[in-house]
């Protein structure tokens, strides 16, 4: 019986962890697969017509955000995997594959994450408004007594501000 309780406890903990981090694990697995597909495509050789050329002046590389330096970059909201880089006197040319699949995964993950954060904030706000009561205190001061009374705090605040009508009268005898 003790072993069964331990197994149940472990299962509950694993379910809790999966519900909180499972989507992230799913996202990372799918991202890994998408990256592997692109690597395989690059290793097998990419047709020149399938490449996207990004030209950046050497003195203005602020437009590019590197995800993995020399391999993956973010440019104008799109993700690219770099196949090769060429440089002339004024510009740097990045021959890339537009990684639409990984971009869609990241977009969905970020949308899901924002939704969870928004829901958590809303729940926290609702709970704090309804269940965390105001701080009302009553001070008991008996100066001519030998007893010392602490300050009592009542942490309940009713959600009802006024009574709209008296409660219905109920007869003990049903006629």
Please summarize what this structure is.
This protein is an alpha+beta fold and 175 residues long. It is built from two helices and seven strands, in the order H-E-E-E-E-E-H-E-E. The protein is elongated and about 100 Å long.
Stretches where pLDDT is under 50 for at least 5 consecutive residues are 145-150
Number of DSSP helices?
Answer: 2
**What percent strand?**
15-25%
* SSE class: alpha+beta
Q: Write the H/E string, N to C.
A: HEEEEEHEE
Straight-line N-to-C gap: 56 Å
Number of strands: 7
Indicate the overall shape.
elongated
- Kindly report the spatial arrangement of strands forming the biggest sheet: 1-5-4-3-2
Radius of gyration equals 32 Å
Main beta-sheet annotation: 5 strands, antiparallel
Percent of residues in helices comes to 40-55%
On the 0 to 100 scale, the average pLDDT is 77
Characterization of the model:
A hairpin with a 3-residue loop joins strand 4 and strand 5. Helix 1 runs antiparallel to helix 2. Mean pLDDT is 77; it is low at 145-150. With 175 residues, the protein is α+β, with helices and mostly antiparallel strands. The chain contains two helices and seven strands, in the order H-E-E-E-E-E-H-E-E. Strands 1-5-4-3-2 form a five-stranded antiparallel beta sheet. A two-stranded antiparallel ribbon has the order 6-7. It has a domain at 2-116.
Keywords:
2 helices, 175 residues, two-stranded antiparallel ribbon, single chain, 5-stranded antiparallel sheet, elongated, 7 strands, alpha+beta
